[in-house]
Description:
The protein is mainly beta. The chain has 3 domains: 2-73, no CATH class; 113-191, Immunoglobulin-like, CATH 2.60.40.1120; 198-275, Immunoglobulin-like (Sandwich), CATH 2.60.40. The chain has helices spanning 2-28, 61-73, and strands at 35-40, 43-48, 54-55, 113-122, 133-137, 141-144, 150-157, 159-166, 173-179, 184-191, 198-206, 217-221, 225-228, 234-240, 243-250, 257-263, 268-270, 273-275. 19% of the residues are buried.
Amino acid sequence: xxxxxxxxxxxxxxxxxxxxxxxxxxxxxxxxxxxxxxxxxxxxxxxxxxxxxxxxxxxxxxxxxxxxxxxxxxxxxxxxxxxxxxxxxxxxxxxxxxxxxxxxxxxxxxxxxxxxxxxxxxxxxxxxxxxxxxxxxxxxxxxxxxxxxxxxxxxxxxxxxxxxxxxxxxxxxxxxxxxxxxxxxxxxxxxxxxxxxxxxxxxxxxxxxxxxxxxxxxxxxxxxxxxxxxxxxxxxxxxxxxxxxxxxxxxxxxxxxxxxxxxxxxxxxxxxxxxxxx
Length: 278
């Protein structure tokens, strides 16, 4: 009985050793480990058939006792207390700082404007020309003159323009005009007639002495024709539209002189003046 108990003790120790060898075999290879236990009167033998069977020498009782003591005295691993991870504070949300940039001033889209008025006139008679077409460029504006030749353009952007007027029986006349914001520009356009013209000329003398009067002023009305006599007392109007006019002569130290003349196309009217001293 005592021998049987000893064998049981050896068998237990052998089993413990087998379990250790099994764990080591599993860590070093994926192939299954086959252990065979063999017991006889001399001890316990362990066979390893991993990859091929080969019997091992029997273990002595002392070796088994030492193995049992190692198993009993092997410290059981305990869980190591894990230090808590430091808590990292989340960054505070960024705050939108108020803008210090100045608020842009709205740009006014209102265009400053002015106006234009005037008259389209006959260059000789200074009479207004009705129904003349007046154009303003580059604004692209146009209008027609009234019965007395007047025209107007309102709300014209401030700038410099070319003003042109055309009418039947007249050459086109044009002039430059500058429009200033809030102001009116007045300009008259003088159109030259394309009809056949005549002329007027003469000599002005003193009625008392018969000598020529130098520097006498001669005008033809209606119209804007005016001139002065030269050193020989001569005056002349080379381009006069056919029609009836009043010729007036004035000079210092003399009474005013006037007469009616009729100008015909292609003809020259000779109108001499005799002035009476005051």
